[in-house]
């Protein structure tokens, strides 16, 4: 029993360390890249909020409200109430980085309008993911405490795999939104041509955070399988 209760340490713990290192690096890199290009004001002086309003209106999304929310890089599009929420670091900023982030969130709004399949799939997974996030690890430990109950342990691993699946489905959603943003900004209506590569770097760095999250969770899933897959009665 001790081996199971102490499963947090051992040879496979290196997978956890790798996952944490990747996540920390990705988080640092996106902040570093955003801060770098946040120093470059767009030549046209457009704010993130103005850019978002322009893109949404041009896309036939005049009904979507743009809100200002507190925080740094807490920008998001809420498909539930059809609102675009821009953080303090984006809303009133005229930087190239802020305009890129705003355009990315508009990309999600356009996905929603066009019923983009991966976005719909991600939304459908939310209830199962919430279940997996809350109960996967507790189920595994209950299985351990109940005499290495393989059924409970495997149920926990399956629930955790739903979290990994959700993060994998998130990748095309985020990459597609960034691709839409780059295409829109390349039209020349909001940014000069020499400013677009800066946006591409900001959004590329942001995408790495989702890749890192997926890798970190996948490594944890592999670790759980390695630990418990070979420990049946």
From TrEMBL:
Instruction: Tell whether Transmembrane helix is among the UniProt keywords.
Output: yes
Domain of life of the source? Bacteria
- Spell out where the chain crosses the membrane: 12-30, 123-146, 152-173, 202-228
- Entry-linked Pfam families: Zn_peptidase_2
Q: What InterPro entries does the entry give?
A: Zn_peptidase_2
Q: Which UniProt keywords apply?
A: Membrane, Transmembrane, Transmembrane helix
Extract the PANTHER family matched here.
MEMBRANE PROTEASE YUGP-RELATED (PTHR36434:SF1)
In Swiss-Prot or TrEMBL terms, this protein is called Peptidase
Source species, please? Companilactobacillus allii
Q: What is the lineage of its organism?
A: Bacteria, Bacillati, Bacillota, Bacilli, Lactobacillales
């Amino acid at each position: 029993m001790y081996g199971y209760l102490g499963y947090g340490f051992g040879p496979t713990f290196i997978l956890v360390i790798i996952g944490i290192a990747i996540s920390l690096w990705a988080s640092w890199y996106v902040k570093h890249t955003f801060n770098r290009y946040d120093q470059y004001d767009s030549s046209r002086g457009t704010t993130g909020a103005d850019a978002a309003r322009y893109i949404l209106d041009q896309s036939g999304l005049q009904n979507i409200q743009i809100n200002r929310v507190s925080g740094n890089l807490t920008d998001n599009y809420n498909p539930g109430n059809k609102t675009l929420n821009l953080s303090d670091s984006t809303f009133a900023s005229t930087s190239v980085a802020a305009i890129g982030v705003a355009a990315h969130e508009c990309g999600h709004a356009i996905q929603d309008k066009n019923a983009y399949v991966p976005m719909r799939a991600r939304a459908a997974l939310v209830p199962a993911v919430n279940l997996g996030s809350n109960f996967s690890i507790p189920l595994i430990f209950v299985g351990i405490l109940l005499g290495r109950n393989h059924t409970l342990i495997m149920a926990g691993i399956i629930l955790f795999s739903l979290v990994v699946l959700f993060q994998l489905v998130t990748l095309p959603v985020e990459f597609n939104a960034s691709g839409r943003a780059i295409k829109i900004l390349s039209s020349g209506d909001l940014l000069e041509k020499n400013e677009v590569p800066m946006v591409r770097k900001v959004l590329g760095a942001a995408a790495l955070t989702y890749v890192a999250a997926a890798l970190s969770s996948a490594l944890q899933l592999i670790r759980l399988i390695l630990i418990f897959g070979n420990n049946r009665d």
